[in-house]
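Need RNB domain-containing ribonuclease's 3D structure for a figure. Predict it.
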Amino acid sequence: MKTLRDPANALAKGLAAIRTEFDVPEAFPPAALAEAERVAQRVPDGHADWTALPFVTLDPASATDLDQAFCIEAAGGALILHYAIADVAWFVDEGGALDSEAWRRGETLYLPDGRAGLYPPMLAERAASLLPDGPRPAVVFTVRVAGDGAVAMDAVTRAVIRSRAKLAYSTVQEADLPAGFAELSARIAAAEAARGAARVDPPEQELARDKDGALMLAFRERHASEDRNAALSLACNMAVADLLQAHRTGLFRVMAEPDDAAERRLRLTAQGLGIDWPDQATLTQFERTLDPRDTRHAALMLAIRRAGNGASYRPWRADETPWHAAVAAPYAHATAPLRRLADRYVIQAALAVGNGRAVPDGVSAAFDRLPKVMARAGALAGRIDRAVIDMAEAVMLAGCEGRTFDAVVTDIGERGASIQLADMPVTARIDAAGLTPGDPVRVRLTSADPSRRAIAFEIAGAPVS
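Structure prediction for RNB domain-containing ribonuclease:
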């Protein structure tokens, strides 16, 4: 996992081809843009005034679509998290041009060279974003976090807030953050460990230019502040899920555990990468030992994410208990409405039941429609991510034809044997004749074509011991 310099401009050309192939939207329809300009001028009506509270945001330095702001206060042995979420429903009229386009898109699509947003930038990056340049409408979830990390929703309030600072993962200092931030995050992490939860957060690819102006593909460093911030979002989403379950409504994020076959393949991948996975350690226990700053560990974290059964959305049903295996608890998405369509409706439901009102009929009806829409959007995002990775692998290996690599067989399927290179975060397929999962092999690169996003290997002999 390394920086890829791109003197031939293959990355830029490849990304442009991916955008065309997957029909990534480049612009919004005129009607949606006109509506966005109009609703961006709306003045909050009926929102409580919470501008005196010292909210801050914490995101990547370049982010401008800021969904979340937070402040923390102590209450005896508990910590109170006021988690403000952009009030997208205040701006978006059901059935309007913005709403229709959001249902068509489903979620923001991210590519290394830029994103295709769920909403126009004038909303997502300005009027609705919780930037520190003026008051913004928000829905504030007030979550009580006990000493053992247990969470409970105290209140859901539609309010106007004012962020005091736009903090960045890469530069934030402890003194910039609210008192209690580290303690609250530690409580959530301890509760996760007690539940047996296992969230996998591998590093993300990003495209940048070096000092000579050449494009390069790198993996963004994950900072400790980012992991702590994720704990706040987790606490809020779990509290929202509990609130909705108690009122027999909602839309939940669910995921089953990886099956035994997937875990066996992952053990082989770890072996191929030279990472020790003790026989007695479960996948959950093992995941907690991985460090995304180690390139081999980061590659394995990506493999673990791909090996999961996949998360999906499910509306509340009387005969089902929604469960998310990675969280080891019921879980809902409510904290990124500028980037995910479903969150807007979950927030509206929580706002209603949290204040003793019935969930609007349109929101309840949306819960039945959203799983299919979000699955389609998620599948598209997944295909784009895979295409970017395939392209990056091909660029990484271009010019190395004829070179041999140590690898391990991780799986045998209808399309051949899956292999994992020992020195690079590269997976590929080869002819499966005579191979079984776990076999060490030495392979020769026969082709690497960035334009087709394709690489090919052949057996070259036994691995070097």
